[in-house]
Amino acid sequence: MKVSDKAVSIKNHEITALDNLEKFYETIERDNPKINAFLEVKIDEARALAEGIDKKIQSGEKTGKLAGLVVGVKSNINVEDFHITAASRTLENYLGSYDATVIKRIKAEDGIIIGMTNMDEFAAGSSTETSAFGATDNPAAPGRIPGGSSGGSAAAVAADMCDLSIGSDTGGSIRNPASHCGVFGFKPTYGAVSRQGLLDLAMSFDQIGPFSKDAAGTAMMLDVIAGNDPTECTSLAWEVPDFTSLAAKAGADPESSFKGVKLGVVKQFQDVSDEKIVNIIEESINKMEDAGAEVVELSFDHIDMCLPTYYLINYVEFFSATRKYDGRKYGERIEEVCGEEVLRRINMGAYISQQEFSGKYYKKALQARSLIRKEMNKLLKDVDAICGPTVPKLPHKTGTSLETMEMYAYDVLTVIANLAGIPAASMPAGDVNGVPVGLQFQAKPLDDAKIMEFMAALEAIQ
Known about the structure:
By secondary structure, the protein is α/β, with parallel strands linked by helices. The protein contains 19 helices and eleven strands. It folds into two domains: 3-249, Amidase signature (AS) domain (Amidase signature (AS) enzymes, Alpha-Beta Complex); 256-305 and 362-461, Amidase signature (AS) domain (Amidase signature (AS) enzymes). The active site is at residues 74, 149, 173. One of its GO terms (biological process) is translation. Belongs to the amidase family. GatA subfamily.
């Protein structure tokens, strides 16, 4: 059942919010010890909320858009009275004292937050293996990584532990695990969703977004969390589209969504990807072409510049963000308890931030970022969206020893959208011997609605 259909069934008394919650809790109790998608679950509080929603429905009171739907939250987003650990020993005992803006909005629409999901420590990773509380398994491809850093949020949805979840995306941390776990993951335009209450990894890249098993669920969550937040300095004042209506219309009449549309396919994005992945992506592109889209071949000559640019900026901003974890006000001193990847980024950031090196590295990276943003906007000027692989390779088996650059290579196709500040999303396109493969859409800034429309339309014709 689609998430949107379930929401209607709950409001129509066909399913109770409590029954919906209990089914997910049964799954969590049974499967989470192996999958490790959730780090913390609070069932008593969730039951009380579900019972309250059912009473409101029975008495004919108005309920919110997410009434009775169960939501998982990445452990770097503040939720009052939950442990907000960012999967690190640094914050192991830190209890959230307030709700992030996105959480306030989810609660205001009667979404039931069941727990906090696993992640790479401080979102520094692409596999959810760097969590201080153990790796997350991939429910869609057991024994393999779920991707990262929002691997717990993607796995929770893929494993039927919740209806929806939210994560953060700094260089692909929503889209990468969405691809590996075979679910939908959406990174909005930078500033389209409030970052207030997010523990930042690299503040000029970070964005919060949703996971769902279908386009309709993704649209519902975007309807709730998108929009201006006067308390957050990067938040945009923009007219939020009706994502749910757009997705429903596109799903009902996919040919209309693709008729007259130009989709860009970038040669270099396919060149860096495994052939088996490219073959699956091309099948989806052919379906969109058959439905009326015009496919235009594009060239992006700066792909080799993207990873070094992204990581140089990431190191500096992460070093700055972690200075508050000094063990004085709360938590432990981060350098004393953190894992290898977090320490690497702190040390690199400290080194690059020194006056004698900032011009040589950081300022050049900022210049390169401007060039990448300019070139991406130029590519998008004459097309409605760019489509291609989300991740260039299949997820490795958990515990495989990889060199640092091998791990970073997972991000080569996703960091571009963060560098450019544009919206991007991943949706299931197929699988290679049972291992999911995601197709990524990227569009102009604030063209989030177009991506939603194309995802819903492609979902309908697959």
